[in-house]
Automatic annotation (TrEMBL):
This is Archaeal/vacuolar-type H+-ATPase subunit F. InterPro entries: ATPase_V1-cplx_f_g_su, ATPase_V1_fsu_sf. Belongs to the V-ATPase F subunit family. One of its GO terms (molecular function) is proton-transporting ATPase activity, rotational mechanism. Keywords: Ion transport, Transport.
Length: 112
């Protein structure tokens, strides 16, 4: 039986993606958060290599959400925003909450 692998990657500033090396994820460090073409190349590389999940720091995800949507619209790659090592804006949590609400029809995270 052939084993199929759908790798996971982490994209963001060097300090935030380095810890993911310990659990075997491929890291893509972005030195310049304004380098849209660099991020585009990384995203296309992940799509071509059949990555399943991309954990991306919230700052990059929020800045390039439209580009990410365009590149992954018809692809199997899921991009999930995560906090940076230094701080969280809460954007990643909000995105996941919205996705779950759209999928199940209610906000299961709502405080009652």
């Amino acid at each position: 039986m052939q084993r199929r692998s759908h790798p996971i990657a982490a994209v963001g500033d060097y300090e935030s993606v380095l810890p993911f090396q310990a659990i075997g994820l491929k890291q893509y460090a972005i030195d310049d958060p304004n380098d849209e073409e660099g991020l585009r190349r990384i995203m296309l590389d992940m799509i071509n290599e059949k990555f399943a999940i991309c954990l991306m720091t919230e700052d990059l995800y929020q800045r390039y959400e439209q580009l990410i949507g365009e590149l992954t619209h018809d692809e199997a790659l899921s991009v999930i925003p995560i906090p940076t090592l230094k701080h969280s804006t809460g954007y990643g949590t909000l995105q996941i909450r919205n996705w779950v609400e759209r999928a199940v029809g209610i906000d299961i995270f709502a405080n009652k």
